[in-house]
Give the backbone structure.
Amino acid sequence: MEKGRKLIFISHAVPTENYLAVWLASKLRLLGYEIWVDKEDLRSGSAFWNDIDKRIRLESLRFIPLVSEKYIENSKIQGSGVFLELQAAQAVKGIDNYILPIRSDFSNHNNFPLITLGINSIDFNENWGTGLKKLLKEFEIQGIPRHELEPNVLSQWHKYQGIHGEVLKRPEWFGSNWIECSLPKSLSIYKFYGDAKRAMREIPFACSRDKDFLLGFFNDNGLDLRTEFREDVEVKDFIYDNSFILNNGEIIKDTENKFTQLMNKALNTFFYSHEQIKCRKRKDKTRIYYTVRPPTKSGRYPFKIGEKKGWRTLKGKHGNIYWNYGLSFQFQLKPFPHFVANAHILTSNESGFIDDDRKNRRSIPKEWFNRHWYDRIFSFMNYANNGRNEETLEFASGREIIELYLQTVQFKSAYGYEES
């Protein structure tokens, strides 16, 4: 029965599992396996279904269902693509280990389609890379044949995604999640009478501590603290070397790290005081900022990237779960001053935030491509800038003004790509 069969048939719920199905097909094809995957739900046409039925019954050596909650739901609907594929697979006899299920989300094993019950599945719900390694190990143990390796994985990805294009030798710009910023001109180094920790708690501005010294972009005028020592220094001088000698002979060490702390605290202070933005602090102390309410009933937020304008949702509901798109920020001094904006998905229910919710954090943005994540940075920052759609956002830290350039840093490549 197995003689002449080489095909690995990937069965999935269209379109919810398209991305994983195409990713897996591309990886396996690159490694030399013969793959068939239906990306566009061709099962809806009888002519196409005859071809699919033939491939499953007569050509496939392995049948791999990507089992998810949606797949389980579709398997119960007579006439659906998933239902028909499972029927065809059930008719295949005489091939050991013919069905090899993959669990693509946190669905319950007990609810798997009847044909897959009792068969150990391979988990892809935590990490696709780890799941792929386990799948390849199974292929090796079971002796699944391979042909000559495919040298170009990108061409396979484009084949399954239906992308037609070519690489051109022309300059092209690519976006990033780096937000360039200006540097404050000066900072002040203080030594107040009494305990430095206690004094730090009484200062309403961003500050950093080095032993008995406090550093910040603020003046001590109006503070209810007695100043024992103060020195104002140029920022460029302070960060020039990794240590700075004060006029009194004492040394501030690790100056770059101290300055990074100040910049992070300055941006945090801006977001904390923003009336329409809230903060969720994780156990690892990462501060994730999210929007309070959308500017429109649709929940969409406007953005502008150069001449391009559009809308993206930053919050919504997924079943009985509420979700928020949020950003955390980390200042970096090199190769030039900028904040790295890292994206997050926060989930909550009627009881509050859900800390360990990998299931929904993976399923909610499942259909988002890189451009969807990228656009949302601009939507969020435009919201933080009170919808002004300007190129810069300014905020004060003490006496200093810091400017964020909201178009994000772009990188130039000598090669470009054109799709058709």
The chain has two domains: 7-163, 171-420. The longest strand covers residues 321-332. Residues 255-272 form the longest helix (18 residues).
